Amino acid sequence: MNDTEGSHITADIKRDSAASAVNLQDKEQVGETKLQHPTNRTARLSVIQEILSNAVVSSQGQLLGLLAKRGIEVTQATLSRDLDEMKAVKTRLKTGEMAYTLGVEPEFDDVTAEKIDQQLSRGLSGLITSAAAARNLVIVHTPSGAAQYMASVIDKQPIDGILGTVAGDDTVLLVCDDDEAAAGRVQWLLDIVSRGQGTARN
């Protein structure tokens, strides 16, 4: 091998090493990309609800950090207003820790169930135009634009037999444990809404 051939090989090795370094840098940058969330108020409240429902959050500072990891920057004053609006309060958990919770803890008794029904009758009054069961689903129709709000009212309460909700513009699907639970929740919804409308008239 002459000197010219050796120089060419050395140059090729350097080019390959540089290209590999660039590719590695690109991959690292891709790996560091954070999932971004919309920064409007509704989206922020939704993310706060998700965090408080799935994590033990003991301080506003901790919550600010968790929001920042999701790409949401907010001041502590704004966060305090959000928590007040969502009725998030510090509660002593069964573990002894103090943490923010939303609504009533899922411990059902007659008194708790009655309180939930009262809260829902106020929150859902005028929002349900019809309800019907289809297997383990409850299909609820609302006035246009009210479905998202109705679903959020349901989601904030630990309601036995309801696994979750899916909302469109004027329709909400309640996903229940089984067909029997769905049939029972249809009548339950109609009863609590009728109760709320009766209270409003009085």
Number of strands: 6
- Globally, the shape reads globular
The main β sheet shows up as: 4 strands, antiparallel
List segments where confidence is low: pLDDT < 50 over at least 5 consecutive residues. Answer: 17-35, 104-111
Give your account of this protein's structure.
The structure is a single chain. The chain has 202 residues and is an alpha+beta fold. It contains seven helices and six strands. Strand 3 and strand 4 (137-141) form a beta hairpin. Residues 17-35 and 104-111 have low confidence and may be disordered.
List its traits.
202 residues; four-stranded antiparallel β-sheet; 16% strand; alpha+beta; 7 helices
Sequence-ordered SSE layout with sheet pairings:
Blueprint: H1 3-31, H2 41-54, H3 60-69, H4 76-85, E1 88-92, E2 98-102, H5 110-124, E3 130-134, E4 137-141, H6 147-155, E5 162-167, E6 171-176, H7 179-201
Antiparallel strand pairs: 1-2, 3-4, 4-6, 5-6
Summarize the structure.
The protein has 202 residues and is of the alpha+beta class. The protein has helices at 3-31, 41-54, 60-69, 76-85, 110-124, 147-155, 179-201, and strands spanning 88-92, 98-102, 130-134, 137-141, 162-167, 171-176.
